Amino acid sequence: MSITQEFYDNLAVHYNKLFLDWQETTKEQAVILDKIFSDNGYSREARVLDCACGIGTQTMGLASLGYNMAGSDISSKEVIEAKWEAIRRNLEIRFEFADFCNLADRFKEKFDIIIAIDNALPHASSKEMLKKAVESIVDRLEEGGMFVASIRDYDELLKTKPPYSPPYIHKTENGQRVSFQTWEWEGEKYKLVQYIIEDEKDLTINKFECEYRATRRAELTELLTACGCKTVEWKFPEETGFYQPIVIAKKFSEI
């Protein structure tokens, strides 16, 4: 089991605690993505694959809007959580346990849109692994299809290499919940430790460790272009309302 699988397997039942209101977040992010899809000419009849679906933060909201959704993730435990959430919401969503580096192993069909939101791609620990992920994703797109992903603003973060992220403090019925990350840098890679502290009737501390490779926008743009995307553009939080930069890449066949 990779460190990424272990991280998300352990985090699965706690993941929704990273949000003040996870249910509301699924709706808010769906609205943002829906606008991006619409602005690029896609209707809600589009076939969409969330190839890093986790517990379904984006998948649930988009399915609720009527999109034909499928979801996959490298964490089997997060996929299980997503399946249960879909059942609770009475949503028909196909879920698969799959590495986004090898999507064709699980999905023989192709999709109009593939998404990988919330810094999923930088789990690729090397340039070679990132290239494999991008090739895998673009391969599962229909001609004229679109890939939408968000990553942290590493172009800025690499200038200072901050040792931690600001904490989120959420008031709860019985106290408060505090979540934050520490980042230990080594070159372009960093070890992330996610803490979730629940200070309620009892004090509970959970700790989860993972690794990332900081991916600059130029590197991802170059890879997407090399793998068959003819247009690649970046949108920033002030334009989309999403908290990370978003890349929009469209696949077109050679004429």
Give an overview of the whole structure.
By secondary structure, this protein is of the alpha/beta class. It has two domains: 3-153 and 215-251, Vaccinia Virus protein VP39 (Rossmann fold), CATH 3.40.50.150; 156-212. It is 32% helix and 32% strand. The chain contains eight helices and eleven strands. The strands form two sheets. A seven-stranded mixed beta sheet has the order 3-2-1-4-5-11-10, sandwiched between helices. A four-stranded antiparallel beta sheet has the order 6-7-8-9. Helix 4 links the parallel strand 2 (68-73) and strand 3 (94-97). Helix 2 packs across helix 3. The protein is globular. The mean pLDDT is 97.
Layout: helices, strands, pairs:
Layout: H1 3-11, H2 22-39, E1 47-50, H3 57-64, E2 68-73, H4 76-88, E3 94-97, E4 111-116, H5 127-139, E5 141-150, H6 154-160, E6 168-172, E7 175-186, E8 189-199, E9 203-213, H7 217-226, E10 229-235, H8 237-240, E11 246-251
Parallel strand pairs: 1-2, 1-4, 2-3, 4-5
Antiparallel strand pairs: 5-11, 6-7, 7-8, 8-9, 10-11
Helix pairs in contact: 2-3
Do you know the CATH architecture of the largest domain? Answer: 3-Layer(aba) Sandwich
| Overall number of domains | 2
Secondary structure category: alpha/beta
Proportion of residues in β-strands: 25-35%
Radius of gyration: 18 Å
CATH class of the largest domain: Alpha Beta
Keywords:
255 residues, 8 helices, single chain, alpha/beta, 11 strands, Rossmann fold, 7-stranded mixed β-sheet, 2 domains, globular, 4-stranded antiparallel β-sheet
Summarize the structure.
The protein has 255 residues and is an alpha/beta fold. It is built from 8 helices and 11 strands.
